[in-house]
Amino acid sequence: MRLKNVLIVVKDIERSRQFYHDLFGLGLVLDNDGNMILTEGLVLQEEKYWKEFLGRDIIPENNSCELYFEERDIEGFVERLEKYYPDVKYVNQLMTHSWGQKVIRFYDPDGNLIEVGTPV
To answer: What per-residue string of b and e applies to 73-108 under the rule 16 or more CB within 10 Å gives b?
Structure first.
């Protein structure tokens, strides 16, 4: 058995597709009307369908999980983030951990937590 995909819930699927393309270079693999599979195994699911499937409310910024990306040129990434999404909500600005890894954490437009760090 293997993990195939990771699914996140979004309000505006096209806005989210653009966000993940602009910042992480993820491309569209499959568009299933309210469900998009992007490269690297990320799946976007429109909130209205997910609420219908689960019968429960969606809780943005619940901090129960995060998407983790690695980037060698993290300063360049931060410049791109600030250029394309100046209103992004940060958990922490670019910082350096005691072991030397640089990281930044922020929310996507739907409150999904993202961390970008330099390779360890």
So the answer is: ebeebbeebeeeeeebeeeeebeeeeeeebbbbbbb
């250029």: which residue's tokens? 83
pLDDT digits (tens, 9 = 90+) for 17-43: 999 999 999 999 999 999 999 999 999
CATH architecture of 6-117: Roll (3.10)
Spans of all domains in the chain: 6-117
DSSP at 75: H
User: With 90 as the cut, is the pLDDT of residue 120 above it?
Assistant: no
The continuous run of DSSP H or E covering 95 comes out as: strand 90-96
Structure tokens at 59: 């809780």
CA distance 9 to 110: 8
- Judge whether 82 and 36 are in contact, CB under 8 Å: no
pTM above 0.85, yes or no: yes
